[in-house]
Amino acid sequence: MQKSTTIKDRIAEGYDGLSDRLRAAADFVADNPVDVATRSLRSISTASGLAPATFSRLARALGFDDYEAMRELSRSAVGRRYVSFSQRAQQLQSEAVAAEPLLQRQAAACIANIDSMSQTIDPARLERAVEALHAARRVVLFGACGSTGLIDYMAYMGRYFSPDWQVAGRGGAALGATMAELSERDAVLIITKPPFARRAILSAEMAAAQGAAVIVLSDTHTCPALKYATAGFILPSDSPQFFSSYAATLVLVETIIGMLVARAGPDAMNRIAEVEARNHRLDEYWRV
């Protein structure tokens, strides 16, 4: 098993092959990294209701030499448990009289998410993902629910430098038709966060079955699409408001686009210039 940067990455890679009991241990480790990193195995066993031997077996199943090696990697992890939007809205209302204004708390959370992402993301994995997109005959993007807008933004940027980017299931094209057309020459990028859109998970499964490169952006190791991913990224999305933050995801999306343009060569520059020129001719921009 390839060594990943964070404990959540390691868990995500091996999660599908774990037994129910080991999954319960993995969930506890991912959601309680501070406790795992600072408390004894006996204390962790008591808090989780699982035997100490279960965590030792989990460590070996994830490719660690022993529990202490897994515990060490937990020091850099940030766990996140899904809470429904309505529950988070209720919590937000209860904190309405908090001393610190929401703007400051939201900004601090976003900054922390971006900083955590930049410090823990695996550069080699990011390079592989970008290369898969660069080499693809066609890049298909999919996101539903809260991820829809970010997918549209990514497609908008992608179309500036390449004619071979499309959003699946939009513009009169059925999602199933797009999935049926995929091959090993294509790449699919999916953004999905809890509560996961069913179509996003099935799209990842279908794309993988067709041989396409599958890149998944989520915020939890339990994302069902990760088991179909060629490259998966778990991005922090903590927020004091009722909805998950997409700040770190946005930064990664913009980084991926920048990396693609940087390696695309003169063809990309020429296309961007041509798109800009035609936008001017179409009066898309405000005249100054």
List the helices and strands and how they pair.
Blueprint: H1 7-14, H2 20-31, H3 33-38, H4 41-48, H5 52-61, H6 67-74, H7 85-94, H8 102-120, H9 123-135, E1 138-143, H10 148-161, E2 165-167, H11 175-180, E3 186-191, H12 198-209, E4 213-218, E5 231-234, H13 247-264, H14 266-281
Helix pairs in contact: 2-5, 5-6, 8-13, 9-13, 10-13
Task: Tell me what you see in this structure.
GO terms for molecular function: carbohydrate derivative binding; DNA binding; DNA-binding transcription factor activity. It comes from Sediminimonas qiaohouensis. The chain crosses the membrane at residues 243-262. Keywords: Membrane, Transmembrane, Transmembrane helix. Residues 5-81 form the HTH rpiR-type domain. Helix content is 56%, strand content 9%. It has 14 helices and five strands. The protein has a five-stranded parallel β-sheet, with helices on both faces. The chain folds into two domains: 7-74, Winged helix-like DNA-binding domain superfamily/Winged helix DNA-binding domain (Arc Repressor Mutant, subunit A), CATH 1.10.10.10; 123-281, Rossmann fold (3-Layer(aba) Sandwich). With 288 residues, the protein is of the alpha/beta class.
In short:
This protein has 14 helices and five strands. With 288 residues, the chain is of the alpha/beta class.
Mean pLDDT metric:
87
The CATH architecture category of the largest domain equals: 3-Layer(aba) Sandwich
By secondary-structure content and strand pairing, the structural class works out as alpha/beta
Strand content: 5-15%
User: How would you sum up the global shape?
Assistant: globular
- Helix and strand string, N-terminal first? HHHHHHHHHEHEHEHEEHH
Low-confidence stretches: none
- Give the count of structural domains: 2
CATH fold-level topology of the largest domain? Rossmann fold
How many extended strands?
Answer: 5
Pfam families: SIS (PF01380)
Transmembrane segments: 243-262
InterPro entries: Homeodomain-like_sf, HTH_RpiR, RpiR-like, SIS_dom, SIS_dom_sf, WH-like_DNA-bd_sf
Domain HTH rpiR-type: 5-81
